[in-house]
Amino acid sequence: MARTGDSTRTATVSALDALDFALDRGSPVPLYYQLAQQLEEAIEHGVLAPGNLLGNEIDLSVRLGLSRPTVRQAIQSLVDKGLLVRRRGVGTQVVHSQVKRPLELSSLYDDLESAGQGPTTRVLRNERIPASAEVAAALGIAEGAEVVVLERLRCTHGQPVAFLCNYLPAALLELDTERLETTGLYRMMRTAGITLHSARQTVGARSATAEEAVRLDEKEGAALLTMRRTAYDDTGRPVEYGSHVYRASRYAFDFQLLVRP
Amino acid sequence: MARTGDSTRTATVSALDALDFALDRGSPVPLYYQLAQQLEEAIEHGVLAPGNLLGNEIDLSVRLGLSRPTVRQAIQSLVDKGLLVRRRGVGTQVVHSQVKRPLELSSLYDDLESAGQGPTTRVLRNERIPASAEVAAALGIAEGAEVVVLERLRCTHGQPVAFLCNYLPAALLELDTERLETTGLYRMMRTAGITLHSARQTVGARSATAEEAVRLDEKEGAALLTMRRTAYDDTGRPVEYGSHVYRASRYAFDFQLLVRP
DNA sequence: TAGTGGTCTAGACCACAGT
DNA sequence: CTGTGGTCTAGACCACTAC
């Protein structure tokens, strides 16, 4: 009943009508991606409120001067991100969720770098050693092959938060100690052209040993959060194996899971 | 140099040539999905080994009697799963990874149900109460609105593993205590037509209180793994809020992260 | 230069939801 | 019934990679 007296088509009013999208066909960035970005922005800024219908894909493609598959590709990417829901016979609407921003997988790029303010890193060890059996198995290389071992202490507000131990195939990357203290390991890997793709993680807990207690400024027996991770690049080759220990009193993993049907 | 003396086209040999795919156009299951499933199976069974090229999409579509977009859709779904990698100018190859199976997000459907053998659940509490401020905030409902509170003790091999406390909007679902003891909560929700879509989790650790120690058969002060989670359905509405405590000596979270560019 | 994936088009028919 | 998204086709041109 809430319709405009439009003519050509039964044009249900949609919050989208007000928006105009600026698509640049000369740009190297794909059209579907430009559209997706602008839609995402509109959702974030609340121009498209949760529950709003997006208007059907055909009209949308006509209005934008795009083909329907291209519009679908844009919408699909936002559905994958969890920002939109499609319902056959109904339409596409903005998801009813207060959780809008933290959809990306964090904790893979620097665990703390982005979270705590002013994190610092002290590199305790950075050298090449032959791989132990455990490390070799995790990295899929021969036992005894050369790897870089890295031990770092991560602090925020002058207090230690985590002790990080990482192993990387020696040939992979030059690890400058100085840069490691100002940049995260993953950022360095990305800069070196290594594109991370997936990681297998195990998160557990245990009581602090005497040594760990000293290192992290905790009492012996305090609860610690532990994490073991093997990270893979986009070809599926293991590029990093890490064994981290966090002070549970000062850190927790926070992440978003997406269930794919 | 390793080519067949084929004619029509420069047909690079691919492990795929040997396979034949059975596509059923009468089936209600989409063609791209049928193809994706059979490709995935071939990869899992090792018919397509890591590093194998898939052969170009055009040839593949011709061989299968499909259009290229359809073939691409199938391949794309496996790329999304992390089983394949595409490289422009090179081709599509099977990922170099030993991690093949645990790509799905587990730990969202029953944390232990699938892992530990013979898990049992004892429902300690199952009643309707007014929502506390914390629960109301997590579920996006009014404080004091009716919610179901669930307390369960999960055991394997006769030993307690976790204490699970969950809150659900009361109108959402009928929770039969008896069925809860044999089925996971998420399975019950799925059966009730609630399709989970995403979840926000916080994983931490702390020392066991005296009460928790008794409940979980640990010593007071032992390290425990904690998890708080809000789960959302496919419209983004919160459908469950949980606060779980695991015995760190007997359980760890194990999961796979996928990085989307 | 040749071959690959990345993008895009302009249609088509179908299945499902709400009327 | 109408309108929606879901699937599919048969092409096209481009950008990148490797030779």
TrEMBL record, chains A, B:
Residues 29-97 form the HTH gntR-type domain. SMART domains: HTH_GNTR, UTRA. Keywords: DNA-binding, Transcription, Transcription regulation. Gene3D superfamilies: Chorismate lyase-like (3.40.1410.10), Winged helix-like DNA-binding domain superfamily/Winged helix DNA-binding domain (1.10.10.10). It comes from the Bacteria. The keyword Transcription regulation applies. InterPro entries: Bact_HTH_transcr_reg (IPR050679), Chorismate_lyase_/UTRA_dom_sf (IPR028978), Tscrpt_reg_HTH_GntR (IPR000524), UTRA (IPR011663), WH-like_DNA-bd_sf (IPR036388), WH_DNA-bd_sf (IPR036390). Pfam families: GntR, UTRA. This is GntR family transcriptional regulator. It comes from Streptomyces hyaluromycini.
